[in-house]
Amino acid sequence: MIADLVYAVAGAGLLLAIVLPALLDRWAVSVPMVLLAVGVGLGLTPLTDGLPIDPLDHRAMIEHVTELTVIVALMGVGLALDRPLQLRRRASWRAWGSTWRMLGIAMPLCIGAVTLLGVAAGVGLATALLLGAALAPTDPVLASDVQVAGPRTGEHEVDEPDELRFTLTSEAGLNDGLAFPFVYAAILLAQHSRGDVDWLGWFAWYGVAKVVLGVAVGIAVGRLLAYLAFRSASHSLRVAERGESLTALAALLTAYGLAEIAGGYGFLGVFACAMTFRSAERSHDYHAAMHEVTERLERLLTLFLLLVLGIALSRGLLAHLDWRGVLIGLGLILVIRPASGVTALLGSRSGMDRPQRAAVAFFGVRGIGSLYYLAYAMGESSALASPWLWSTVGFTVTASVVIHGALATPVMRRVAPQELDPAEGRPPGG
Q1: Is the CB of residue 340 less than 8 Å from the CB of residue 136?
Q2: Which CATH code for domain 2-415?
Q3: Disulfide engineering: 310 pairs with which of 22, 36, 198, 337, CB 3.0-4.6 Å?
Q4: Is the pTM of this model over 0.85?
Q5: Closest Cα partner for 247 from 265, 260, 232?
Q6: Whole-number Å distance between alpha carbons of 285 and 95
Q7: 302-348 per-position pLDDT tens digit
Q8: 149-181 tens-digit pLDDT
Q9: Where are the domains of the chain?
């Protein structure tokens, strides 16, 4: 019965994913908002009795489903970015200047501010730091309304992508992996007293080595697969000529698995793999075909999770929410992230005007990645297994979906040039 219910919910989510984008295109309502509302409605009916939604009892399942959703999204994000990152060229690094500012300044500021706010509200240091780390990354899954539409290939290829959307997209692609060192810091604090933690070792391994390993494995996998797909001497291996877009799934699973086996961050491995693959034969339409596959799978997984999250909201997920959780969640969305983003972009030479920089600072969408980090950390340390954390993160994700979803369409139409659909040469959903 439970399995049948899961199929029914997944089918309903897929149907809504097909019809909602066109229906909601001209309204200040996002697809995630509608799916959350549908999930809440389903949760109030007896149809969802028995669905495994308790986050403490089903932590492992939540971890693995959200993990898969994030790596699929990261592959799509890496393939969607048209601006190359050439590691040996200083000009290429400068072209990503806004991204580095958001990662190196805004994200640590967000983590620190949420941690301090949590401690000031009476939350333990390890719990507060985990909350800050889990909520710090912007989400590549739920932020599609403010990100690039997809790779521009063939006759639609351009040299200068929209800076606002590029910054939000590239930030979301990288900060999922870069939040991990802080998650591990919270785990170490929960397992040891502050004085027993080897912070130098933490920085060397979790802050540097695992980042380098993840990126290195991703680049290696991306180069190998790109060579096989585009330039292999064997016709049977040149899958780009046949348009075999399922290579995207093979790439993301291989990069993630090998990066994790090597001890690196798999999230960074997937993103680096996608970026490396995208750099090969940049104008080839095969990139658009691969992106379409990842985008559709991401949409199915995301909307299924949103429906389940909505059901959980009406079935006790927020039972342990208190004023501290509300203060931290709304404080992050309305004050901490915008202030951190504005601070990070001060003096930026990206070419964005003040309203566009403000939009980048504000649209730090929280979502599926936060649920993953929370589930992962609780699996590593039982001391962090707290229903209050689930209530707080669930509330924050929901508030982000509603606030950012309602404002994305009107704000982006006002401050950002309208981006054309790379496949059809028209505005997305138009």
Answers
A1: no
A2: 1.20.1530.20
A3: 36
A4: yes
A5: 232
A6: 24
A7: 888 888 899 999 988 999 999 999 999 999 999 999 999 999 998 87
A8: 667 665 554 445 578 888 988 898 898 889 999
A9: 2-415
